[in-house]
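RECORD TYPE: protein structure
NAME: Energy-coupling factor transporter transmembrane protein EcfT
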Amino acid sequence: MNPSLKFILVLIIALEVSFTNSIVGNVILIVVGLLYLLVKRVKLKRLLWILLIAVIPAIGLLISQVLYAKSSHAGILLFTRIYVYVIYGAAFTLTTKLYELVNSLEQNLHLPSKFVYGVMAAFNLLPEIQAEVNKIKTASLMRGVKLHWWSPTLYFRAILSAIRWSENLAQGMESHGFVEGQSRTFYEPVKITMVDWLVFVFNVILLQAILLLL
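PREDICTED:
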């Protein structure tokens, strides 16, 4: 499915689940989401890790509702709702490449180019920032100063480096002819096909049937 339509579909699922009270519908959505992840060959270890992370907030909500609100139905509803959010968030992030998503958002949803390039730059600079943090730690140790992960000095220096990189990136884009707001051509056009629309509409209709009729 087209990344933009997939993104919109996940948002629709999250919004509708937030305003419906169907435990059975939530369970069905969880099963469907897990099957989708397995079909997409997501590693079982990663899938189990995602499910484990959601256990703490889900059980916390369940216990608080049962003990204080005296409502087991509300507790189970919130428990399953948490897992719907987590599983479909994972289904989107683990099966969609960032490059394809931002290209689709720019071409299909007409988001500004500066937003698209900003997102790409931020993700591509993450390894550089991590390396810079390690470099700052090493330099401090050579001076006899140990910087911990909570040390403000560590992040202040990393932010200064990130600002310098962003300025260099902006100058590089301008030198290659990038002009904000000007129409551009695309090396890899992203189109929404009829099949994409059919799959999207089918999933939306199926969602209504699951949440509203069960």
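COMMENT: Residues 113-175 form one domain.
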